[in-house]
Amino acid sequence: MTTYLLAGGGTAGHVNPLLALADEIIVRDPGAKVIALGTAEGLEARLVPERGYRLETIDRLPFPRKLNLYALKFPLKFASAVERVVRLIRDERVDVVVGFGGYASAPAYEAARKTKTPIVVHEANALPGMANRRAAKYANAVGVAFESTPISNATFVGMPLRSEIARLVETKNVVDARKHFGLQTDTVTLLVTGGSLGAKRLNETLEQSRPALQAAGVQVLHIVGGRSDLEPLHLNGYCRIAYCDRMDLAIAAADFAVARAGASTVSEFAAVGLPAVYVPYPVGNGEQELNVANLASAGGGVVVKDSLFTADYVKDVLIPLLSSTKRMKQMSAAAKNAGTADGTERLYKLVQGVLKH
């Protein structure tokens, strides 16, 4: 029996590819043991058990960015987390550690190194995170979702897609998906999502633009995220929910989307051919702009700065785009052509290659 330790979490961008690989492992080898490693605060704390996998947790330990009391305590806390994972690896006889980034990955990589356990890194973003960047230098294999990702020893595998998303690549039942959300089955449908945590700019602009979208005959599925103050609402042609556990149905229901440019979002939309206006997160290291750069160049998406995504943009740019069936079809074809549908299988094969050596 092969035992896999899959480490990562925090946001859907780390959890979804982890779950995709876990599902692929069990389909290919029902006797395998899959253990996920995350934190109690991340999205994995809910999604991993819901998917039927065992979750082990360690403390959330971001790398210190400045000298303060936390920075002084960090080395001891990190060492304690590493030892916890070392014990887990030894007790469970883990054969390989696969890390996806996030707070749980760094201790997992170090524990694997200590126990001489094979390591596979998957970097989902076009700009790699610190934990993955460091581990890539000594990992047995490194898979990336974007070919341009600057990380050591990279092999392009694409983004692992959850099975329910992968099925949309072949076929999607638009009518049933729209019925699931109480939407009209024969109306142009716009999906708006800022990711699992939501996006204030997207939410505010859509709230201001509801009358214009309704007047244009566009119905909206609006996922506001867990941090939004906007209450769930269902009116004719407008469905607002806080969180969506069936993103496969949300994607299937949509003709077009407005979204942040998280790695999972960009990869999933491209794979299934869902065109979108992407509004990259304006704070941080600019990774979201890089995530969507190739797709936008291929014509499968439009990029707009956060500060420019306003009610005027919706009225002057987005609504005319949604009114052009020809333009949407062209963008859909371009997105699908630029996407990667077999990322899960590619990553699985990369892991198996490490196990065979």
Helical percentage = 40-55%
Compute the CA-based radius of gyration: 21 Å
Order of helices and strands: EHEHEHEHEHEEHHEHEEEHEHEHEHHH
Cα distance spanning the termini? 16 Å
> How many distinct domains?
2
Biggest β-sheet: strands ordered side by side in the sheet: 3-2-1-4-5-6-7
CATH homologous superfamily assignment of the largest domain: Glycogen Phosphorylase B
State the secondary-structure class. Answer: alpha/beta
For the record, the CATH architecture of the largest domain stands as 3-Layer(aba) Sandwich
The strand count comes to 14
Which features would summarize this protein structure in a list?
alpha/beta, Rossmann fold, 2 domains, seven-stranded parallel β-sheet, globular
Tell me about this structure:
This protein is an alpha/beta fold. It folds into 2 domains: 3-161 and 341-356, 3-Layer(aba) Sandwich (Rossmann fold), CATH 3.40.50; 164-338, Rossmann fold (3-Layer(aba) Sandwich), CATH 3.40.50. It is built from 14 helices and 14 strands. The protein has helices at residues 12-28, 44-50, 69-92, 105-114, 130-136, 163-170, 174-180, 200-215, 247-253, 263-272, 287-297, 311-322, 325-338, 343-356, and strands at residues 3-7, 33-38, 54-57, 96-99, 119-123, 141-144, 154-156, 189-193, 219-223, 233-235, 238-241, 256-259, 276-278, 301-303. The protein has a 7-stranded parallel beta sheet, with helices on both faces. Strands 10-11-9-8-12-13-14 form a 7-stranded mixed beta sheet, sandwiched between helices. α3 (69-92) packs across α4 (105-114) and α7 crosses α9. It starts with a strand and ends with a helix.
